Amino acid sequence: MNTFELLKPRPGLRVLISGAAAGIGAAIADAFVQADAQVYICDVDASAVEKAKERNPKLYTGVADVANREQVDQIIDDARARLGGLDVLINNAGIAGPTGDVESIQPHDWERTISTNLNSQYYFLHKAVPLLKETSDCPAIIAMSSVAGRLGYAFRTPYAATKWAIVGLVKSLAIELGPENIRVNAILPGVVQGERMDRVIAARAESTGVSFDEMKEQYLKKISLRRMVTVDDIAAMALFLASPAGYNITGQAISVDGNVEYL
C-alpha cells in the first residue's frame, strides 16, 4: 500500500456522527461519504436533517436530542440496523452554552450545556463501544472537544468545563480500550469560520461592551496564523484519524486551530 492509500479510509467504513446536519458535523459527514464510507448522522433539528438528506441522499439519518439517553439508544439501534454494525463513532454534537460571568449563568443553562456536550458523549459510548468491539477493521472513536479544552475561557465556563472533560474522557478511554484495538482521539477545533462563531463573537462582544468587529479582531490576534480555520480543516483531520495512517494514533487531543495562544 502506498502512502497516499494510507491516507484514505477503507471504502464501506461504517460511520456514525452526532450533531451532523450542519456545521462541522455536516462537513465531516460529506467528507466520509466522498471517501465511500457508509454514514449515519443524527441531529436535534429535524428540518436540518431533512435538508442534509436532500443535499446528500447517500446519508442515513435520524433525529434525536443527544441529551436524552433513550433517544440516543434509538439512534444507535437504528444505525446498527442500517449499517450492519459500526467502525467509527464521531461524538460531535454540542452547543455553545451561555456567555456571562459565573454568578449570572443560570443553573438550567449550565445543566443543559453539560447534558448536551458531555453526557451525550457517554450515552453514545455506552451503546456504541460494544459494536466497535465486534469489528476488526481498526475501529475508532473521535470526540469533538475544542481549543477551550486546553485553555481557560472566561465568561464561557460551562462550555470550557465540558471540553476539558472530553479530553480527560478520551485519554482515559484510550487506555481502557487499547487492548481491544479501539483508538480514541479528540479533535480540538479553534476559531471556526461560520454563523455559529459569529454568534459567539456577538455574545462575547455584548457581554464585554465592545463592537462585533473589535471582538472579532481580538479573536484573530490570539491566533498565531491570524486566521480562522474552516469546517473542512476539521473534516480532513477526522478522515486522517479514521484512515490506516492513523493506525497507531490514540489518546491524543489534536488541535486544529492555527495555534490559538490564549482565549
UniProtKB/TrEMBL annotation:
Transmembrane regions: none
GO function terms (MF aspect): oxidoreductase activity, acting on the CH-OH group of donors, NAD or NADP as acceptor
Gene3D superfamilies: NAD(P)-binding Rossmann-like Domain
InterPro entries: NAD(P)-bd_dom_sf (IPR036291), Sc_DH/Rdtase_CS (IPR020904), SDR_fam (IPR002347)
Pfam families: adh_short_C2
Signal peptide: none
PROSITE patterns in the record: ADH_SHORT (PS00061)
Family: Belongs to the short-chain dehydrogenases/reductases (SDR) family.
NCBIfam families, alphabetized: PRK12826.1-2
Protein's name according to its UniProt entry: Short-chain dehydrogenase/reductase SDR
